[in-house]
Each structure stands twice: as C-alpha cells, then as structure tokens.
Amino acid sequence: MTTLYDAARCPYCARTRIVLVEKGIAYETVEIDLSDRPSWLFEMNPAGKVPVLEEDGWILSESAVIAEYLNERYPEPPLWPEDPGERAAGRLLVFRFDDFSKPYYALRRGDEGARERFEEELAFLDAMLRGVPWLSGQAFGLADIAFLPWLLRARGLLRISLEPWAALADWVERACERPSVAAEQQLVAAL
Ligand SMILES: N[C@@H](CCC(=O)N[C@@H](CS)C(=O)NCC(=O)O)C(=O)O
Questions:
Q1: What is the position in ligand 1's atom list of the atom closest to the CA of 62?
Q2: Most buried one in 108, 148, 153, 188, CB count within 10 A?
Q3: Using one digit for the tens of pLDDT, what is the confidence trace for 34-81?
Q4: CB of 10 closer than 6 angstroms to any ligand 1 atom
Q5: What is the pTM of this model?
C-alpha cells in the first residue's frame, strides 16, 4: 500500500502526485492541514513537511528524493533520459531549483524587486526550452515535474502571464495535455 501525506495546495506535493500518476501507481492520500500540522507528522519527517510517502510502513520525505525513488522502484515509463549526460543536466536543474523558487516565494510575499528576479528565472527556463520540447530533452521527465507546479501557480494564483516567454508558455501548454499535469492545473484553478 502506498500512502501520500499530502496538501492540495503544496507544489512539492504536486511533484509527487504527478510522478505517481505518470507511473500509474495506485495510492491513498492523507490530507495534512498545513496551518495545524499533526504532531505525528514530525515523527515521519522531522522537518514536519509534506510530501511524505509511506510504502508498507517504510517512510520517505523530500519531493526530489521521492521522485528519484519512485522512478527507480517503478522503472516504467522512465522519467529520465537514457543518456547519462542528459540525465545529469536534468538533475542539475533540480539541484539548483532554489534559484528559481526563492524569487517565486519573494514575489508571493510581495518583496521589492522580486518580480524582476522571477522574470529572469522565467527567461532562463525559456532559453532552455528553445529547440527542445522538455527540460531534459526529447521526453517529459523529472526536470519538468520539478518546475511545473510553480509555473501553474505563478500563472493561476500570482496572475503572471507567460506570453512574453513563448517557448516556456508552449512547454506549459504541452505539459497540460498530459493527464498528470492537467489534474494539477484543475487543482490550482480550485485553490
Ligand atoms: N524540500 C521539501 C519542501 C517541502 C515543503 O516545503 N512543503 C511545505 C508545504 S508546500 C510544508 O510542508 N511546509 C510546512 C512548514 O514548513 O510550515 C520537499 O521538496 O519536499
């Protein structure tokens, strides 16, 4: 039995939900109230954060690690390219994700200059996507999944138009054709 300790509005949980759908893994959800986290959550993850994945009593936290675990545990369909260099380049993007998320959260808080810094990050992703359909090349995978939840929220909740970044906007549209990401788009619309 696979259980996801989840919060609908959490983009890190969205990463895990997308991987679970892409892999076709049946799972149960336990919704955590982030404004009143249960004490037992800290026993599962000392950081007290979601997502937490539980498989037959075995517990794992950290969305990027959970994604890697699920991709290895359930190899089909693969969510990294076969080429080691392409895989490493994709992992580098995930490793440096905070460069993207810091301006996002600064913008959400309304910090001065955050909009410009976030737009620089959008321009960076846009440049990466010129000439390739997905962040790690020819196939959808974990690099895309690492970033898309924030793009959906930037567009849907922070009302950022992606129009100035055509390759980025096309990438989000392309991703939303996948049931795993379309479900997240609907969820964001309902937040
Ligand atoms: N590095 C963690 C971050 C997870 C995270 O920040 N989750 C947020 C919800 S979006 C959370 O649980 N926050 C609880 C808190 O710290 O108050 C991951 O990738 O899983």
A1: 20
A2: 148
A3: 999 999 999 999 999 999 999 999 999 999 999 999 999 999 999 999
A4: yes
A5: 0.97
Q: Element (H or E) spanning 189, and its range?
A: helix 179-189
Distance, CA 169 to ligand 1 centroid (Å)? 26
CB distance 50 to ligand 1 below 6 Å: yes
Please tell me if the CB atom of residue 81 comes closer than 6 angstroms to any atom of ligand 1.
Answer: no
DSSP 181: H
Pairing of strands 52-55, 28-31: unpaired
3-state secondary structure of 6: strand
Residues 6+ apart with CB under 8 A from 114: 103, 106, 107
Rounded distance between C-alpha atoms, residue 163 and residue 20, angstroms: 30
